[in-house]
Amino acid sequence: MARFPGSTHLTVHRHWGLRGAAGILVHRAGPEVLLQLRNTWVMQGGTWSVPGGALEPGEEPVDAALRELREEAGIAARDVVVDPDPQVWTCPDCGWSYWTFLARPAGDRTLRIRMNAEAADMRWVPVSEVGALPLHPGFGRSWPELVTRLED
């Protein structure tokens, strides 16, 4: 929430999670990334994003991202290798942060996806097609930096 000095206007920002939120962008050869189409009843429904959600009290961002991956995609932490250096976006008006971790399948594992009700769809999307999708605003802000990191 932001109030400008001498102004009667108040800008309210809506972010999910009092302590911030975290997600995980799983990528594999192709190159492809695992994205979910958010169901219409969740915040920013009808947009594509990564499995992710609010940090629970005392939870580290990487743990939240892995928990959300398990809850939303049915993928266990042991099945992925996580890059420990997340891409972090912090709201300049309120200080709220979203951490996006990159991960890849561990070894030669084939990841079996079991999406939950928060997703209307979940699939591997070619990196070249991501920009044409209706992206969740938060993920859309992060995508240009994330795709650069995938190319490294």
Automatic annotation (TrEMBL):
Could you cite one Gene Ontology molecular function of this protein? Answer: hydrolase activity
Q: What is the lineage of its organism?
A: Bacteria, Bacillati, Actinomycetota, Actinomycetes, Nakamurellales
Q: Which domain of life is it from?
A: Bacteria
| Coiled coil regions in record | none
Pinpoint the Nudix hydrolase domain residues: 17-148
The record's listing under PANTHER family reads: 8-OXO-DGTP DIPHOSPHATASE-RELATED (PTHR43046:SF2), GDP-MANNOSE MANNOSYL HYDROLASE (PTHR43046)
Which family is this protein grouped under?
A: Belongs to the Nudix hydrolase family.
List the Pfam families hit by this protein, alphabetically: NUDIX
| Keywords of the record | Hydrolase
Q: What is this protein called?
A: NUDIX domain-containing protein
Q: Which cofactor does it need?
A: Mg(2+)
